[in-house]
Amino acid sequence: MRFSAEEFSQSKHKRLTLLGMSGVGKTHLSKLLSADEKWYHYSGDYRIGAEYLNDAILSNIKHKIRQDEDLAELLNNDSIRVKNHITFDNLSSVSSFLGKVGNPEQGGLPIDEFIRRQALFYQAETLSMLDVPAFIERAKAKGFNHFINDAGGSLCELDDDKVYQSLAENTLIVYIRANENNEFALIERAKNKPKPLYYNQEFLKKQLDIYLQENQLIYAAQINPDEFVRWIFPRLLEHRKPKYEAIAQQYGYTINSEDLYQCQNANEVFELIGATLCR
Hints:
Elements: H1 5-10, E1 15-19, H2 26-34, E2 39-43, H3 44-52, H4 54-65, H5 69-76, H6 92-98, H7 111-130, H8 132-141, E3 146-150, H9 161-170, E4 172-177, H10 180-192, H11 201-214, H12 225-251, E5 252-256, H13 257-260, H14 266-278
Parallel strand pairs: 1-3, 1-4, 2-3, 4-5
Helix pairs in contact: 3-4, 3-7, 10-12
């Protein structure tokens, strides 16, 4: 959606898509807005885990359970059941399924299985973003005045104009650009607590080749999973920045994380977005 600052301010039904790395301030912005008015909060990652990856997540858990004969028998005769209890604040089952590439003895996934799960995640994220128009209508039917799409950090990796065009036609795309301090904090967080991530396949292959060569390794199965995430994250950040910028330039608008974190309430967020629209 393209708005003037006045049109956005006067709009009775504001619809936003938030774009940027995980940890850059998307959830912070969502909470500021939701505190004052009736916003429908759509989480792309929640939709992915609850709908499009639910069966794969459960299948993976059941496979692990069946490695124990006693538990396998209980599962097979329906004495126990497995449920994917995912919430907006707890997406651990999605992260666990996505996993990290590397040595299985250190919790890593074989490269073929890792790539398979990456592909499933890509498909799930694409579908979850194409669902946004339907959920906007659902939100309106439930009486919500406004709609916010809290998209995952890997939205820029879809490289799908159909997805971006759909989001732009139905929402105002707002890219939250990280400043240097914010980027440093994101990198430090990745070092201290390396988490599973989605990678563009071409980017992943190139970085794996570099990592193996730098560390004199032959196979991906020799990689320490956590060390690889720590190593690749700063490169992933640099890889995604121009992608975010390109989406914002073609389909949306950009605000800076340092400006966002100075906002104390919804009105100040609206003023920040309005100032961006003026530019």
